[in-house]
Amino acid sequence: xxxxxxxxxxxxxxxxxxxxxxxxxxxxxxxxxxxxxxxxxxxxxxxxxxxxxxxxxxxxxxxxxxxxxxxxxxxxxxxxxxxxxxxxxxxxxxxxxxxxxxxxxxxxxxxxxxxxxxxxxxxxxxxxxxxxxxxxxxxxxxxxxxxxxxxxxxxxxxxxxxxxxxxxxxxxxxxxxxxxxxxxxxx
Amino acid sequence: xxxxxxxxxxxxxxxxxxxxxxxxxxxxxxxxxxxxxxxxxxxxxxxxxxxxxxxxxxxxxxxxxxxxxxxxxxxxxxxxxxxxxxxxxxxxxxxxxxxxxxxxxxxxxxxxxxxxxxxxxxxxxxxxxxxxxxxxxxxxxxxxxxxxxxxxxxxxxxxxxxxxxxxxxxxxxxxxxxxxxxxxxxxxxxxxxxxxxxxx
Lengths: 187, 200
What we know:
The complex is a heterodimer of chains A (187) and B (200).
Chain A: E1 17-20, E2 23-26, H1 33-41, H2 43-48, H3 57-73, E3 76-83, E4 86-95, E5 100-107, H4 116-131, E6 136-142, H5 146-154, E7 158-169, E8 172-182
Parallel strand pairs in A: 5-6
Antiparallel strand pairs in A: 1-2, 2-3, 3-4, 4-5, 6-8, 7-8
Chain B: E1 10-13, E2 16-19, H1 26-37, H2 39-44, H3 53-69, E3 73-79, E4 82-92, E5 96-103, H4 112-126, E6 132-138, H5 142-150, E7 154-165, E8 168-178
Parallel strand pairs in B: 5-6
Antiparallel strand pairs in B: 1-2, 2-3, 3-4, 4-5, 6-8, 7-8
């Protein structure tokens, strides 16, 4: 029924973004694989995100291929988060229609609790609003994922709903929080 | 996503019956055109701005296709023997569905949509075994909101950029109804529901 053309321009060449405090956003590298595997095997990641359970080593290759494909077709701008020279997690923008996107992020257990993701996400949002000319960004998380919510709130997201059955993970529905951040909001 | 059963005929009471659409009935096609040329429908629904017979044919053909392919359970809302709109459930993963409905202007303001949606929800929970249903609409579409509330939906979010409308994102309201929820208006004491047009 769509009468409108898709409004999703190609992504620019991958930048390296300095988030300050020793935090860097860059392309994933083959030697991140072990740390990605550790992160995605972590119970917190399995509880709150859609990563495969059990997480196996071949899932890392699939994830890297997904990131490469997403950048090429303009649907996913995913970055490795590096803190003090070590892989610390992933942060991404899933690009939708009408210059909106949804954020996704997850940290390796060793990098949690010291503001790394707030720096990383905030930097990615600046880049998305400035370089991709995004109008707005959504954030969604399973109800109870307070770590994710704290990061979203620190980055300026307005929490706008707590919706039953909002999210699907591995065939199961979970209640979800949803929020948004507009380019015109303070952040 | 499991296959859908055959499209049923459901008595919604008060002269309102849900039945399969009639894609080759000239009167039904003409009524679909009238419905979708209405300014209210144009404003809140993502449909062609110049709505012609060919669009109505595609609309009803899609309703028939949905039953075959299992991604759309749409029925005509029949009032006293005439087509007056459609109601639909779009099944999603995890035994949930999203609700949609639209009425011909001649049938608005007297509880037809509430009866029709109520009957389709009963069928969805009982026959499809749905666990929950989601409703979403433009924040300014209060007519749709009131139908959802009368059917028992709980409003759970008001989200900027929730909906895509003609290539732009617009703010939306989201509400849900679970299989076990009471099927009567949720008490929103601060925002009482207005009376039907013919009760005023």
